[in-house]
Specification:
Strand content: 15-25%
CATH superfamily of the largest domain: Histidine kinase-like ATPase, C-terminal domain
Largest sheet: 6 strands, mixed
CATH architecture of the largest domain: 2-Layer Sandwich
Radius of gyration: 31 Å
CATH topology of the largest domain: Heat Shock Protein 90
Length: 552
């Protein structure tokens, strides 16, 4: 497998050669129309980008030559240097030199021995800046004696192609359909016990896995493509809020599905605004608290198995839990008696409820009725999770747990009352087995102490199949057998236990939308087909969790 550095280098070379082709074309056009400002602007832009990209990846010589050419074309663009024959020849040679250097990046035998005259000529025309033959003070232009083998245009095509994201989306959907049929074929081959068919279906399984990986890999982009926009954003918000902010960014080279990055863009921007507006104190307040006048914000990304975690942390005032409790009661989410018994993580979860806000004033960047529920809904839509931790006086951390793919998701399969169901692994915390006597009836719900936490427990058979108005969720006598298989799911800082009849296995599934009339049932998030051809409903953990808010 190629290293990340090698991939970056190959991408740079492919893009740089495309820049070279465009530069060669544009300078030929400019020779015929030396006053065409659009051509000059495009040449200047290409050289500027090539200079920056080469410097970023460590090819300093290419960056230096690009910079000299950029300067020369800038002078021509500003009418400080005439596009004369003498100048044209030097610029043509300079662009050819770029092509030669780019082509020979991986050539250990390439030596830039013939470039001294050309580089001096570039310096001379830049210093003269009048288009005439330079004076003795600058020295005359020298003839470049070496014919460059590169131009004598070894024609080659770029190894980099650009694909519209909608085409990759279509390919991903086709791979999803193929996975469903693959699992079906594999199941049939085992039932028929045909060695040849089993061998072919096993090979199909491997090929489909590789195809899925390849398509998913083609959709990956660096999170840096988003992260690197934030220094300017942070600066603008800080100026508007009269605050001093230092931003630290890490993990820009972590890769993630392009669609997922696009979907969470607004969410990350919203969290950044909140961190600076509500989290970081004013300089004078920070100084009084013994903190540096400048607030700190950390934006990071890291891989976590088949997920990507994006964290936004600040060293501001943190979230006041008592203030949130008061707002919960004031905004009629829960009664005061219920609120006082909530765990800290449950209290924090309410900041993601629709309409919930602690903003006391409207500024350019906050307090306009758009809350953190927008963030949660966006992350829910891709099967991710958002988690918040906060220490009053020390700061707050928001963590987005994001899947690597939207179309194909890992899931836990199980049975309830003879039906097949799935829960995305993203929302699966753990699986436990408890005797019935460990479950306790509290009001109209069951609860259990699991790993030092009191967790509400739901019997899925009763939730899914009991007639309307006849559910007995708080009656443990309706449970089958003594040992209960419980899947602990997590969503928005809350945990819920789901009792199932039989645990099956973990499996990658392709989730398809439901058709009418079941498409409007909140607790179902989609459907998939198993290898046996059986329909498997995918449970919507966020919807189920929201249904039981406040029932403990």
């Amino acid at each position: 497998m190629k290293s990340r550095e090698q991939e970056y280098k190959e991408i740079f070379i492919a893009e740089a050669l495309e820049y070279y082709d465009a530069l060669s074309r544009h300078i030929s056009e400019l020779e015929k129309a030396p006053k065409d400002e659009k051509i000059l602007a495009e040449i200047f832009r290409l050289l500027h980008n090539l200079k920056a990209n080469a410097k970023a990846i460590g090819f300093i010589n290419i960056s230096d030559v690009s910079h000299k050419l950029e300067t020369a074309f800038g002078l021509i663009r500003n009418k400080e240097l005439a596009f004369s024959d003498n100048v044209v020849n030097v610029l043509f040679d300079g662009i050819d030199l770029l092509g030669e250097m780019i082509t020979n990046i991986d050539n250990p035998n390439y030596k830039e021995t013939s470039n001294e005259v050309l580089l001096r000529n570039l310096d001379v025309i830049i210093e003269s800046a009048d288009g005439a033959m330079p004076t003795a003070e600058n020295g005359p232009l020298e003839v470049t004696k070496v014919q460059r083998e590169f131009t004598a245009k070894n024609l080659s095509l770029s190894e980099l192609i650009y694909i519209q994201i909608k085409k990759l989306d279509h390919m991903m959907n086709l791979v999803g359909e193929l996975i469903i049929d693959r699992d079906r074929i594999l199941s049939i081959s085992k039932d028929l016990d045909n060695p040849d068919l089993i061998s072919v279906s096993s090979h199909l399984y491997r090929i489909t896995d590789e195809l899925q990986f390849s398509v998913m890999d083609a959709r990956l982009v660096n999170v840096g493509s988003l992260f690197n926009k934030f220094p300017r954003i942070v600066r603008d918000i800080a100026v508007a809020e009269n605050k001093q902010i230092h931003l630290d960014i890490t993990g820009q080279d972590i890769q993630i599905d392009r669609n997922i990055l696009q979907i969470i863009t607004d969410s990350l921007l919203h969290l950044m605004r909140n961190a600076i507006t509500h989290g970081i104190e004013n300089p004078e307040v920070r100084t009084k608290k013994g903190k540096p006048a400048s607030g700190n914000v950390w934006l990071s990304a890291q891989n976590d198995r088949d997920m990507v975690n994006i964290k936004l942390r600040d060293d501001g005032k943190g979230i006041d839990l008592n203030e949130i409790k008061s707002a919960i009661v004031r905004q009629n989410y829960l009664s005061a008696d219920v609120v006082k018994d909530l765990r800290d993580n449950e209290v924090l979860s309410y900041i993601f409820e629709p309409g919930f806000s602690l903003a006391k004033e409207i500024t350019e960047f906050s307090g306009r009725g758009v809350g953190l529920d927008v963030v949660k809904n966006a992350i829910d839509s891709i099967g991710g999770r958002v988690h918040v931790d906060s220490q009053q006086g020390k700061g707050t951390t928001f963590t987005m747990h994001l899947p690597t793919s939207i179309a194909v998701k890992g899931a836990l399969l199980f049975e309830v009352a003879g039906g097949f169901f799935a829960i995305p692994l993203m929302h699966t915390d753990s699986v436990v087995s408890l005797p019935k006597n460990r479950l306790h009836e509290v009001g109209d719900m069951l609860v259990a102490d699991i790993m030092n936490e009191t967790i509400s427990i739901v019997y899925l058979d009763e939730l899914l199949n009991a007639p309307e108005g006849m559910m007995q969720l708080g009656n443990k006598n309706i449970l089958k057998g003594d040992e209960q298989n419980i899947i602990i799911v997590t969503y928005n800082n809350r945990k819920l236990g789901l009792i199932v009849d039989k645990l099956l296995r973990q499996q990658d599934i392709v989730i398809k939308p439901l058709n009418k009339p079941v498409d409007n049932i909140d607790i179902y998030g989609g459907v998939t087909l198993l290898g046996t051809g059986k329909v498997c409903l995918v449970l919507d953990v966020p919807a189920i969790t929201r249904y039981f808010i406040g029932k403990r």
